[in-house]
User: Fold these one by one.
Assistant:
Number 1:
Amino acid sequence: MGADSDISLPAIAGGAPAKTTPYGKSKRYGDEELQELSEALNQGTLFYAHGNKVFSLEAAFAQKHGVKHAVASTSGTAAIHAALIALGISPGDEVITSPITDMGTVIPILLQGAIPVFADLCEDTYTLSPQSVKAHLSNRTRAIIVVHLAGNACDMDSLKTICREHNVRLVEDCAQALGCTYKGAPVGACGDVGCFSLNEFKHISCGDGGIAVTNDDELGKRLRLATDKGYDRSPCVAIRHSPFLANNYRMTELQGAVALAQLRKLDGIVQSRRRWCDELTRRLEYAPGLALPSATAGCDHSWWFYCMRVLVEEVGADATTIADALQKEGLPVSAHYIGQCVYEYPLFQNHAAYQRGEHPFNARTYKKGDCPAAERILDTALILAINEAYSDKDLDETSTAIHRVMNWFRSNHW
Ligand SMILES: *Cc1c(COP(=O)(O)O)cnc(C)c1O
């Protein structure tokens, strides 16, 4: 046996792991954040309405997204909840969304007493299928929350048309897609409201935080009220007679300061992720047994993670087996992403929103099989974690490992 064939033996079969050095990792927070934090503290107030860090963040974020209004909040979930409050989503309304997402998309729908309706996805882009959305419209549909999964935009032209034709409001969940553009414009500005997360794991972070953007002046005002108990703080003395039910989702000056410094790093972060992931796609083109992620037409992907699918028939191994083999090569790969569609969670199966009393979603049945394409995506999904500090060596070793493992399974299979 020659040296070449020894090298090609995967780690699960006794070979040496393809990854020889740790993946690149950048220092997430540094002097820029410290400087902003120090300024925030020196203001003598950490309250957004009396300081300028949150306001500066909102102004910079709005400018970056080409919109008139940005309103910061405590989380991505809070930003989406504020959007639904601002849009007047009410008990019994139906809101169509994606079955593969973070619970932060769905919780706000339930908190408003509205009914989540799950539409199916496109098998190659992992984003909402406009045909399926159309098929799920009813006379109670009031809004659609589109999820730009993993950094890939939904087919916004088709979804916008559906919303316009049926008089339905459009919310964009951009929590995973900061920096992504659709037809040249940043996502978040296509719909009525765009919502972002600044939690620890997203493209940029302030620990926890969120922000919602809109071009509509009235919605801009309502978003602010929706995050601040309905209090209007624009006059010198705040007006406290809340015009509608709202939560306290106020961002503090500390988060605002960190997020402001982070926002300046965004372009570099997205650029690095794009370059690395595009090159990985190029190198994996001929790897057997894999379906590679494809960006929606017109979308410039911002790569929050890299999601491939295992073609089980072709390699004779499932996603769990392949993920295990790739982990043994030293790759940060996991199978099945969120495991099951959101509607399969006990919350939906048991209608367990509240301990007692009726929630309007109790009347709807959620069951396995509701969104077959989304279920197939999760069954076969392989998630590769991505970081902007990944190097060329990381790229070489990652693609070598994937080729080695997929080739080995395929040749053992046939
Ligand atoms: C992270 C995330 C959220 C929620 O954001 P939080 O800041 O954690 O509340 C919502 N939707 C999607 C798609 C997410 O990835």
Note: The chain has 15 helices and 14 strands.
Number 2:
Amino acid sequence: MFWWKQILIEINLIVLIAAKYPEYNEGYSLSVPVDHFAYTISDTFKIRYFYNLTFYKPNGPIFFYPGNEGSLEVFAENTGIIWDLAPKFNAAVIFIEHRYWGKSLPYSDESFTALSRIGHMTSIQTIADFAIILPWFKQIYNISQDSKIIAIGGSYGGMLAAWMKLKYPTLIHGVWASSAPVVWFNGGGTPLGGYGSRVQKAFKFFGCNNSTILFDGFNAISNLGKDDQGRQKLTNIFNINPKTPLNSENDVKKLLTFVQTAIENLAMTNYPYPTSFLTSLPAWPVKVACSFILQSPANPSTEELATLMKNISKIYFATNLTCLDAMICGNPENPKLADVWDFQKCTEIIIELCPMGPPNDFFPMLCNDRESFLKTRKQFCSNNYKHIGWTDNLMRENAIQETYGWDFTQTSNIIFTDGTIDPWGAGGVTNNTPGIMDGQKRQIFNFIIEGSAHHLDLRQPSSCDPENIKNIRYQIVQILKTWIDPSLPPYSSTALPPFAFPNVTDCEYLYNQYPWNQK
Ligand SMILES: *[C@@H]1O[C@H](CO)[C@@H](O)[C@H](O)[C@H]1NC(C)=O
Ligand SMILES: *[C@@H]1O[C@H](CO)[C@@H](O)[C@H](O)[C@H]1NC(C)=O
Ligand SMILES: *[C@@H]1O[C@H](CO)[C@@H](O)[C@H](O)[C@H]1NC(C)=O
Ligand SMILES: *[C@@H]1O[C@H](CO)[C@@H](O)[C@H](O)[C@H]1NC(C)=O
Ligand SMILES: *[C@@H]1O[C@H](CO)[C@@H](O)[C@H](O)[C@H]1NC(C)=O
Ligand SMILES: *[C@@H]1O[C@H](CO)[C@@H](O)[C@H](O)[C@H]1NC(C)=O
Ligand SMILES: *[C@@H]1O[C@H](CO)[C@@H](O)[C@H](O)[C@H]1NC(C)=O
């Protein structure tokens, strides 16, 4: 689920590839209650934040990133657009860490070991933390109390930003929620197979005319995995780490998950330029995967298919040895941390998705309706959290609907952006989401970016960004200007240019070069 946990059941929302490191100071907040909503405990803790006031001028806004599921550095380093635009807007910048992540642990290492402690890991507690810290931040750094707060977040961070606008309308002035699957819940209208079909779409879009071969590849791995001889072949082909041997068909399932994870992550991080941080990826990694597919023989043998799957997986997981459980062979920074997003998946964040197999996608089918999805998820949660007291009743299938919902008819100033080849894009708002179709009169925008991967728009601008990415950033700057300066007329969005490959190959990050040489 996280970069230090190589292998997971299902892909998580964060992306981990950085540009130049931003510069900021680190601070710890005032004490906040572990439980904001009841009076049975009086425990408090402090939350970490990063800030930079270098560009702030009186009347400037605050660009606030609501930390999502990871250590705060990951978000500070992968949201270049905030640092890039801060000088232009005379903005103060603050990133606030999500509770139970990084250095914001209510009960240090013991935060995860009992339901009475980890049970305070919820989105609503988290945004309540943010809502206390933001006014305090203004006060202690002498930022005007009138300074407008613009929440900018990607993925789950984008969901938190949008939810804050609904819950704290007078605190949050505007939101840029990128790749935030806010309707991917029961009743939101996103198809169960949406994730897998987007991955398949990404492979088609970027050059694999016929990706059926990937389904054949998964079958080849399963078939080889049925006996010892085949498992030995797989061990050789994938160079399996001896610490996670392939001894049984169950172990082979972990290998299937490993390959699935790699393929999903290639689609999610299919960025136009090479990215290198914790995992090193070429430009357009899906194109690279497709080049392997296009080169494969006409009637590949089972072993050739397995080799193809290995070649593709290694684009994402570039390590020599294939580890099937990073908790066993990796050096996880803090193994306990890796479980907290999973805990949210087992309590409130019930994003309903499943690989379903052809024609929806090229993955082995895991479930095919809501009931089988819930059954699979509950089994996962029981395996992981029964020992700390998790029961089926703690999985509240409608928690997000009941806590926030997705009715945007009574709110304003929200920009949603989604990429057409981002697997998470399937769960973004649509014209059927209440308040979206007629949203512009309340300055609610829904931009769909052709060919764009997971929150590409929030990254540091690059000379290799397609025109539609440059254009969306440009339009968003115009929108932000009108939110901050009420004397300006409201903004009307225009259609984004179609996707086109940039004809530049020598990619470089562009710092402070708004409007980025748009055509
Ligand atoms: C804020 O960011 C600017 C630009 O990266 C940098 O010059 C400055 O030193 C930073 N301030 C702090 C306090 O890190
Ligand atoms: C804020 O203003 C007060 C009073 O003018 C001053 O004492 C304090 O040092 C300032 N704090 C910061 C962080 O600039
Ligand atoms: C992919 O399909 C298109 C249209 O069906 C065809 O024109 C093109 O030649 C195909 N490309 C490859 C590499 O097979
Ligand atoms: C796609 O490839 C598979 C084999 O991987 C083949 O059986 C199928 O006929 C191909 N489909 C098309 C439309 O070429
Ligand atoms: C896998 O990669 C190796 C090394 O790059 C290459 O020689 C081989 O042809 C590839 N095989 C398949 C099936 O993609
Ligand atoms: C990768 O593993 C193989 C087989 O164990 C070994 O021969 C090779 O030297 C390793 N390559 C690297 C770069 O470590
Ligand atoms: C890229 O396209 C522009 C025109 O759109 C052209 O002037 C330029 O020469 C092209 N560059 C390359 C490297 O092809």
Note: The first helix runs from residue 72 to 77.
